[in-house]
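Need C-alpha cells for this chain, all 130 residues.
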Amino acid sequence: MAAVGEEYSATNAFILFKDRSSSTDRALTYPSEKLVRTVGIVVSLIESILDTDAHKEGIEARIILSVMNSVDFAWLTDGCLVHHQDLKNSIVKSTVRITIRWWCKKQNRKMAHMGRQRAVKRKLSVFKHL
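Here are the C-alpha cells for all 130 residues:
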C-alpha cells in the first residue's frame, strides 16, 4: 500500500478508501489504468451493439466476437504470454455478462418510468373531463 499523501488516480480512489477503512491487514489490489480504459471501451462497444441489436438471437456470442476482434488487448502480453488469452477471455466474458445485465436493468427502469408517465397523463386527462 502507498504511503499517506501519495497520489492516486481517480479510478483507484474507491479502492484506496476501502483499503484504509478495512479491518484486515491485507492490502486490496488496484486495477491498472490500462485495464480500466480497456473495460471502458468494451462497455461502450457493448452498449452501442445492444442499443441496435438487443432483440437478436445469440446477442451475447455476437458481442463477445465483436469485442475480441475490435478491442486492443496487446497490453496484456506485457505481463504474461502464457496467460494472455485466458486473461483476455475472462475480461471479455465477465464484462459482457455484467454489462448486458446492467443494460437490461437500465432499459427496464426507463420503460417503467415511461409507463408511469403515461399513467399519470391518462389520469390527468380523465380529471380534466370531469
